[in-house]
Amino acid sequence: MLAQTRISPVARSRAPAFSRARAVSVRAQREGKLPKWDFVFEYLTKTKGLKTVAPEDAKVMVDSGKWVLVDVRPPAAYKQSHPAGAVSVPMYQPLDWSKPDFTKVVKLIAFGANGVTPVEPNPNFVEQLKEATQGGQRGVITLCESGGTLKPSTNFQFGKASRSLQAAYRAFSEGVTDQVCHLDRGVYGWYQADFEFEGEGEYAPDIGRTPMAAAEPTLQVIRQSAGYEMRSTDKK
User: Fold this and answer.
1) Rounded alpha-carbon distances, angstroms, from residue 99 to 32, 96, 193
2) CATH architecture for residues 28-226
3) What pLDDT is attached to residue 103?
4) Taking CA atoms, which of 118, 173, 210, 223 is between 20 and 30 Å from 107?
């Protein structure tokens, strides 16, 4: 008879944080939404220690060839203008009407009421993010329009959510890579640093309209990430 291996309470308490985060991530993705922001915040700050890098440092990292800027904004925004050398791996994509269903109709109504172009999660996000790492040879620096922040404040106990921070969470929790950084103030910060842009047009900050609170998960993420961190030294 084989001896039964006993797992002590201490050993159980040391279950890898990656496994717990992966389970939460898989469940959330299956339900068509991301985990609550407070969970993501705790994971990024305490478990992974995600580093936010200034545009100046990000440029040095990218120029080394060991890192790549990953723009998670919608494809249209990337096409219009993006930081030079950035690759597009959108968190969300325009609604695919080749397979219409009731959920998409609800999205169309909810987004339209908030003055926002209707989108849905990009089903190929993880695969595209893996491609951006070139087989794990490059780390990723995630960026969106305004960046969000992991710095707690009086009004934002868990910092401020953003699509680039959510993308960093997915890169970690879904096993894409452990080489992940987050660009301070996003594309807007790159613009303020006077670094080069590429695309079909010129970059212009897009403050836009902040969607009202809504139950639709994607709208919640967009609403949370609205607004720029303004500084006295910013150019107009």
Assistant:
1) 16, 6, 42
2) 3-Layer(aba) Sandwich (3.40)
3) 72
4) 173
